[in-house]
Amino acid sequence: MLILVTQFNSVLQPLIILTSVVLSLGGVFLGLSFMEYPFGVVMTGVGVISLAGVVVNNAIVLIDYTNRLHRRGMRFRDAVVAAGCTRLRPVLLTAITTILGLLPMVTGVAYNFHKMEISWVSESTQWWSSMASAVIFGLALATILTLIVVPTLYALIHTTRLALSRWAKAVRTAYWAPFYRLTGSEPEED
User: Is the pTM of this model over 0.85?
Assistant: First the structure.
């Protein structure tokens, strides 16, 4: 968290990134209940940790690119939309390749190189399937929600910050207005 705060020079942007991790937990629990697997502390926990790494990476890529576009002079709304469109393919490809790579662990399909045949039931399926299931379902849901929720929260925080600064300026102006009227002086421009 501290590294993200120093990288983005903000506390709110890392919190947006961490919400994507919380969103992925919904997919983990949904997947475990769908597959009727128990929540194994060791293997499912390893799956949640690896899932958090991928999901955080996707959110960082999205927010960092939005910040870059906005700093280059692009209007804020256009920067959010352009970042979402530009980073859609890398985020989806990361999720799809991870999900496809973990499917053999869930299904139990393996290739025995000693006998040169496909094994349809692997001995390690019981061990790895809960982890792979947690990552697959968590990543599927988190990818969709990251592409929707992260830009929405980012825009909401930005517009709220702008509205609060306008409100503070209006309150400051109204507060000092009697002083300027009584003294006959002009307010200083910000």
Answer: no
